[in-house]
Batch of 4 targets.
Target 1
Amino acid sequence: MRARVEAKLAKLRRELLTPTTKGGGGAGEGFDVTKSGDARVGLVGFPSVGKSTLLNKLTGTFSEVASYEFTTLTCIPGVIMYKGAKVQLLDLPGIIEGAKDGKGRGRQVISTARTCNVILIVLDAIKPITHKRLIEKELEGFGIRLNKTPPNMTFRRKEKGGINFTSTVANTHLDLDTVKAICSEYRIHNADVSLRFDATADDLIDVIEGSRIYMPCIYVVNKIDQITVEELDILDKLPHYCPISAHLEWNLDGLLEMVWEYLDLCRLYTKPKGLNPDYEDPVILSSKRKTVEDFCNQIHKDMAKQFKYALVWGSSVKHKPQRVGKTRTLFRSLRKYKLHTVVPSDSVLQIR
């Protein structure tokens, strides 16, 4: 019964957030900010936690700062130049409890957050940590899953045969009756459901809904100059946390390095024939686009059409240089949501 209620609530929430008109101003529309650069990072948090100050310090872009709440009323973009990459940083208006249900400009804020590659949840070190849980709840309600990977399950609709439920592990949350109840709420009467981990009802609902976004998140605890050293030591040991003081510019370098790791970007360098590699202007690729063909498209859309082969130097190949084709993967990402490690991106390419 509880699983069926959760499925019904998920459906109602989706219908509430779906735009009802063809024109502007729909429920699920974000701020009109053109996406630019190699990646987009969003600053999310309650009003007056220091998001605007952080944007000003990191990008040099002016975003009004004041001691009262709701200073930022629209989305302010800036650009961070880091390790040769252009990272667009968005200062989003402060959200309030109930944002996912339309309070304030919550829907616009969270809709824009869904377009980001990484979210920075900015918290005030001197205010209750319950702010973190409230913000997570608002983002979860809008289909954003923080520091999680998609559920390891297969859901396939079919024309007949009823609901078939199988699992390779012991399940403590789901059984055939629960799966049937959830599917029934979505008017699905024929499907194969296969689990490879101990899934919950929420996991199955997420897979059926199919509109969830799984996004890396860093909890940026600002104003650490106002807490004790003992409290700072505790914060520094928590996973996905980065303590800073935006006003005093404490640990901003550490934050940028952490953002780079969570973005999972890679620097690659060009080498024209007969010349030395160009280390001043790297080509930036992401873990989702990391082949030689992606490298060519990043430089010019016609390069891949004229491509014959590429010579690659670096840790991504055994021989130096090594001749490769368009489908060759240029770097291996080992990033996990609990441990971030990326194979060094030192490859040099020459396109022939």
Note: The two ends are 62 Å apart (CA to CA).
Target 2
Amino acid sequence: MTDYGAALAMSKKTGKPILADFTGSDWCGWCIRLKKEVFTKPDFAAWAKKNVILLELDYPRRTPQSAAIKNQNEGLAAKYKIQGYPTILFLGSKGQVLWQYGYDEGGPKVWTSKVDKMLKGKKV
């Protein structure tokens, strides 16, 4: 999903937090690694389906984007004061930041186990 408003609505409806992936998909080495080592793996997909609403907020250098997506993403980078990529924000249904994360070695099981521990008890 790439629509922030739709992700907020889905979070409110399901009670799941939003995993907002601020990424530079065609230039950021750590973003590419995170996607390859974690986000594209079946273990992560199964975990994500049960636990979060996935939102990709991309800041490509070579890949064209619609004006609406580009404007939305630029506004969100400013709102959340994104300093570097990848930045993973876990957001509640009102857009509040629950936790921030990034790249971590170890694959999907290590990544999701750390997220599960940090999000435990957070109000969506």
Note: Helices lie at 4-14, 29-39, 42-51, 67-79, 107-119.
Target 3
Amino acid sequence: MANKPLPSPEVFRQLMSYDPATGKLFWKERPAAWFKYPAQAEKWNRHYANKEAFTPINSRGYHTGTVKGKMLLAHRIAWAITHGRWPDHFLDHINGIRSDNRLCNLREATHAENSRNSDVPMGESGVRGVRQDKRWRKRWQARITVDGVAKSLGYYDTMEEAIAARQAAVTKYHGEFARTQ
């Protein structure tokens, strides 16, 4: 079965409103002309009009909902309503909180940029990109991935030195998408 095409941003402007300060979507009242019977419109508006939309949060932490049989992510709809177009690539939640859909927390990103700001399981050090070397248990290694290539930043006598090296590299290589611990 082929994927259903996304409705245009204009359709979502007719269906809901977006509050950029709170990041919340709200269902708009629907005219009777959209329904087969006036009673259906009355019932829909009584239950949904002016109420928050896309409140469920999925297993990955995103607000979701369904429109015209298609499961959608709230932050993408918020972007489309605000900008009048769907994002070209990914949308990054700047603060890393996937349920925070305030406009000031959303930015377009490539896959690589979005990955730089993602949660990654951390090893024994508790810091991404810093680990105790298995061969020399007293040394700490700092690493970073840049453009898909893992780079060693060196070995350090203390975990704190390795963390400092890693954070400096994150700022240098990842720029505005840097997430330091």
Note: The first helix runs from residue 9 to 15.
Target 4
Amino acid sequence: MSERNRIGAVTTESRPSEGDLRRRLEGRVELIESALHRYRLLHGTLASRGWWRTLREDPSLIQGVLDVEPTLLEALERTERRGGQEGWLEGSSIPRTVSQVREVRERLTLRVRSVLLRRSLAPESLSLEDGLRKLEEVSSQEVSLKRMPGEPFSLRIGAPDGSSQSVASLVLALGWLVLLVGMFVLLVLGERGVALVGGGPALGGLLIATVVLQRRSAPGVVWLTPERLVWIAPGNEPPAAVRLDSLADNGVMLDGPEGTVCVRGDQFIRLKGFTVAGASRLRVLLELFRDARIREQASRVDRQVELVSFEARLRRDEAWLSGRAVLLGRGVFFLRDFDQGAVLFHAATGRNLPFHFDLGLVLEGLSWQPEAELDAYLARAAAATGGAAWSSGDARVAQDTPLEQQVHITRGAEVLVGRLAPSDLESGYRLVRAWREGRQGSSDEDRRKVGSGS
């Protein structure tokens, strides 16, 4: 035997067997192998649709990784050092397993950070163990539509317009039509075998496509309470809730012209597919209810203030002023033709928003305030526009003019006229009746005071 072969044989024989290495490493190799299986399982789960549902149903997927993570790095370093000192036998599985664990662990770390960053729940430097604990917390949270204490109401915000769902439905309908017509033609031509052989798989594929497309194109649902925004996402995306007290300046933004609203608070949510009107409504309501005073007062109301808003004109000093009137049970407020929505929003919050919005959106949010507070907001807005604020005790609604024809209110020499939308007539009559009942009650009280000599 040559000198080189003799040295190689001695070196190979001097290397410990894989079994010896496993024994000397005192279970570290087995820990690494177990970690590889657990990391792969969790990474595959996070890469799948509906991952959050799987984690909620099987918390052991995260816990299994957390069990090995604290000791894994030490096990990897000891194993690599021992292998470097004593050498690996040719064909040994241990160095390959060590390399695979490091690779899968790195990919899992990036995946966990990506999942959490989509909701602004983690910094980019978050460790894997800390990220897993945050992910465990998130996946175990139940996002409920049930109202909590301090949430007397919930508003369903104009959910995404569903245009993608309509397109998907149209495509699927055309697909079904073409398939059925094709099979019918083949049967008429006597090609029964071709119809069955070709139509069967096509039918199955179209059925699967129908289910998948309908799930992916289904619009989500947004609910708003005085305390939180709840997003029930479409398809297999996890639901989310954002506390309104966590919203800061620029926490509600419109992202591009497609109607995507970005909400950034204790979580980050991108609400896609809104119409322009739906996006404006959501933004105004969120901006209103992120005001601490508005939220606190909304938590104390037990019903929405009834009101109607309509285009109106005010005659003052022989001149007619155009604007918009807001009729409530305790008075009427006239806001002249300025940016009425912005004026009322500022009167309620002291803030301005960098986009245009209608008065009706602000009224919708403020109608969930105590009526006296709403009166005060409207009075400030009316004064800011040079309009008018009349109480029901000082003004009179013309009784001989039906509301279908005209709203006609007078106070001294001033006259307010306008027309209600057909959908507001029922509320308008209730409010006018409240005015008259209030005046009647005041008159009865005055007569009692006179009779008692007080």
Note: Residues 1-12, 160-168, 211-218, 443-454 have pLDDT under 50 and may be disordered.
